[in-house]
Automatic annotation (TrEMBL):
<dbReference type="InterPro" id="IPR039226">
    <property type="entry name" value="Ski3/TTC37"/>
</dbReference>
<protein>
    <submittedName>
        <fullName>TTC37 protein</fullName>
    </submittedName>
</protein>
<keyword id="KW-0175">Coiled coil</keyword>
<dbReference type="Pfam" id="PF13174">
    <property type="entry name" value="TPR_6"/>
</dbReference>
<feature type="repeat" description="TPR">
    <location>
        <begin position="562"/>
        <end position="595"/>
    </location>
</feature>
<dbReference type="InterPro" id="IPR019734">
    <property type="entry name" value="TPR_rpt"/>
</dbReference>
<dbReference type="Pfam" id="PF14559">
    <property type="entry name" value="TPR_19"/>
</dbReference>
<dbReference type="GO" id="GO:0055087">
    <property type="term" value="C:Ski complex"/>
</dbReference>
<dbReference type="GO" id="GO:0006401">
    <property type="term" value="P:RNA catabolic process"/>
</dbReference>
<dbReference type="InterPro" id="IPR011990">
    <property type="entry name" value="TPR-like_helical_dom_sf"/>
</dbReference>
<dbReference type="Pfam" id="PF13432">
    <property type="entry name" value="TPR_16"/>
</dbReference>
<keyword id="KW-0802">TPR repeat</keyword>
<feature type="repeat" description="TPR">
    <location>
        <begin position="40"/>
        <end position="73"/>
    </location>
</feature>
<feature type="coiled-coil region">
    <location>
        <begin position="3"/>
        <end position="39"/>
    </location>
</feature>
<feature type="repeat" description="TPR">
    <location>
        <begin position="596"/>
        <end position="629"/>
    </location>
</feature>
<keyword id="KW-0677">Repeat</keyword>
Length: 669
């Protein structure tokens, strides 16, 4: 076949392809290849025809052969790209990306429009594969090309915005290089915006700041962006809120942070981050109740702030609201999710605080939960404080051997650690080894004198050690006073002071003051509430007694606060107010339906009210629950007599006299 015939055959092949006669085209091409096996155009045409005949492998082979012959010719590369772009081609995305890269190289010095088209396709391909770094680098090349061509500012602005859109999901991967390219895109988009200030520019700034807040190491850039946005948009609170939350999560309370909190509060008193900031300020100033109030309010508006939940848990811990503190720790852990980097520190802190709080609750279930929390702390095994907490949790769970083992190991490895000596003290105290407990707590106090709990336990050790140490003012009393001074929210310390002044010093007035304080700090402390009421009655101060009882019953849920209902019911009974007495004693029985004395008092109240049948039922119930209550049995007999049930009454009187021969009321009856 002559050169002229080869050209004619190729022309026939081209015409056949144009007419969609692909098999015919293949014949012509094969004829050419018999003569010229390295004919570039023949191989390209075979690729085209085979692709159309759904023979992808043959098409790919033909294109690759053509590329091998002429690596810098466009046709084969274009054909291969078209082949890989077909929907029936699978697992070719990597190959297609390589083809696009080669086409960019070939178009670069020539057809700029086609270069841009291929560039867009390559970016789309990388984006589908979530290869964000490649997306960013390729898109930047496109922008550079446009800049070299002298593109308008508005067009460049749209291109930077498109880059932001393409990379918006990349922050989840936290790839630093991609992150930097995304932040750069934001900065260029902001610089190239047409209307400044303006709504689009404002929204773009918000997105930029939100993006920056996801990069823990971009603190300076975040602060600068927030300040720049505040300068441009002085009435917008968004950048201030982000800045406040940044300071909260940083865990430091600098002058800068305080200024930020107060400025936000001035601009919008209802802003969640502003209220949270004020709560943290209160916490640092040791105003713990105000801190709890503000942090709770702020977190209702801005609840995805782990550091704020942690501060709230700490504040609740300080005022001994232990169960609430556990809930706040759980919310902190929920908000953290599966943390990395700086958030891992917050996770460890939240888990440790949760364990401490559960240990203060001091029951076996809470101890089990505390052990689970401690197990989740990263690098916990190397932290002696975590070990000491684990020892306390084992002790609360009744696992004395494990607690003792940890205590001995800690004393050997960390002899200067107060918590190690305190753990040893708690173990001795629980075993009533008071002399050893005294030594341990004195050692703990020597290492860490400012811990109220150590003084309280030393006081309790002296209280139970002997009559001498209990009465010695320099022993139990001194330690309880120190505990109360170091922690003014520690209700139990005031309760023990009340016990001392009532039982040892005989000072009812001072004892009543201590019990009242203890009860104000912890309204679930029935012992202190009851003692405050009883001493008020003994001191003839019924107003104080009633005010305490009214406050408790006013807040009580049905089936709770039995002691308060019972005390007030008995007061009404004594003062001739039987209807009120009935209502209160019924409320007391809802909390404890098996209290025979309460049933007896209720019977007395019904009797005084003239409700004889109901009184009879109450007295019978009391004697059923406690057959030794002779008075209830007698009252039941007397009521049967009043109600004309004489035979029953006689039988009941005889029943009493069998047990108590000389019981005069029964003999009279």
């Amino acid at each position: 076949m002559s050169n002229k015939e080869v050209k004619a055959a190729l022309k026939s092949a081209r015409d056949a392809i144009r007419n969609k006669e692909y098999k015919e085209a293949l014949k012509h091409c094969k004829a050419v290849l018999k003569q010229e096996k390295n004919n570039y155009n023949a191989w390209v045409f075979i690729g085209l025809a085979a692709a159309e005949l759904e023979q992808p492998d043959q098409a790919k082979g033909a294109y690759k052969k053509a590329i091998e012959l002429e690596p810098n010719q466009l046709l084969a590369w274009q054909g291969l790209a078209n082949l890989y772009e077909k929907p029936n081609q699978i697992d070719v995305k990597g190959d297609l990306a390589d083809v696009y890269q080669k086409l960019l190289e070939l178009y670069e010095s020539g057809d700029k429009q086609k270069w841009c088209d291929v560039c867009n396709k390559l970016v789309e391909l990388y984006h589908q594969e979530k290869k964000y770094l490649e997306v960013a680098e390729t898109w930047q090349k496109l922008i550079r090309m446009k800049q070299e061509e002298g593109a308008e500012k508005a067009e460049l602005h749209q291109l930077w915005k498109k880059m932001i859109q393409l990379l918006k999901d990349s922050t989840r991967n936290q790839d630093n290089k991609t992150g930097q390219l995304l932040l750069t895109a934001f900065e260029h988009a902001l610089d190239s915006a047409d209307t400044v200030p303006g709504e689009d520019h404002q929204n773009l700034y918000k997105d930029f700041i939100q993006c920056l807040s996801k990069f823990p190491h971009e603190v300076a850039r975040l602060e600068k962006a927030c300040h720049d946005m505040m300068a441009l948009y002085p009435t917008m609170i968004y950048p201030l809120e982000v800045l406040c939350l940044h300071f909260v999560n940083a865990g430091t309370l600098s002058e800068k942070a305080l200024h930020c909190f107060s400025r936000l509060s001035e601009m919008d008193a209802s802003s969640g981050p502003g209220i949270i900031g004020f709560g943290i300020k209160c916490f640092k100033e040791k105003k713990y109740r105000e801190a709890v109030e503000s942090l709770t309010e702020g977190l209702q508006k801005t609840n995805q702030c782990p550091a704020a939940w942690h501060y709230l848990a700490e504040a609740q811990m300080k005022i001994h609201e232990h169960r609430n503190a556990v809930l706040s720790c759980n919310r902190a852990l929920e908000a953290l999710g599966t943390p990395e980097g700086p958030n891992l520190r917050w996770k460890n802190l939240a888990l440790q605080l949760k364990a401490e709080t559960l240990i203060k609750i001091a029951d076996a279930d809470a101890a089990e939960e505390a052990i689970k929390a401690l197990e989740q702390i990263v690098d916990a095994s190397s932290d002696p404080l975590v070990s000491a907490l684990r020892g306390q949790a084992y002790l609360n769970k009744g696992l004395m051997d494990q607690a003792s083992k940890i205590s001995q190991e800690l004393l050997l490895s960390h002899p200067d650690l107060a918590e190690a000596h305190a753990l040893e003290g708690f173990i001795h105290y629980s075993q009533k080894n008071y002399e050893q407990a005294e030594k341990s707590f004195l050692n703990a106090i020597e290492k860490k004198a400012g811990t109220a709990e150590y003084h309280q336990y030393l006081g309790l050790t002296y209280w139970f050690m002997s009559d001498e140490t209990r009465k010695d003012k320099g022993k139990a009393l001194t330690q309880f006073l120190k505990a109360a001074k170091l922690d003014s929210y520690l209700g139990s310390a005031f309760c023990y002071l009340g016990n001392y002044y009532r039982d040892i010093a005989g000072d009812k007035s001072r004892a009543r003051g201590c019990y009242k304080k203890a009860f104000e700090l912890d309204e679930t402390d029935e012992e202190s509430g009851t003692a405050a009421v009883n001493l008020s009655v003994e001191l003839g101060d019924m107003d104080t007694a009633l005010s305490i009882l009214n406050e408790v019953t006013g807040k009580a849920r049905p089936g709770t606060a039995k002691w308060a209902w019972l005390h007030r019911g008995l007061y009404y009974l004594r003062t001739g107010q039987p209807s009120q007495a009935v209502a209160d004693l019924q409320a007391a029985l809802r909390a404890d339906p098996k209290d025979s004395n309460c049933w007896e008092s209720l019977g007395e109240a019904y009797l005084n009210r003239g409700s004889y049948s109901t009184a009879l039922k109450s007295f019978r119930k009391a004697s059923e629950l406690n057959p030794g209550l002779v008075y209830s049995i007698y009252r039941a007999a007397a009521l049967e007599q009043i109600l004309g049930k004489y035979e029953n009454a006689i039988a009941t009187y005889q029943q009493i006299l069998k047990k108590t021969e000389n019981y005069v009321p029964a003999l009279k009856g």
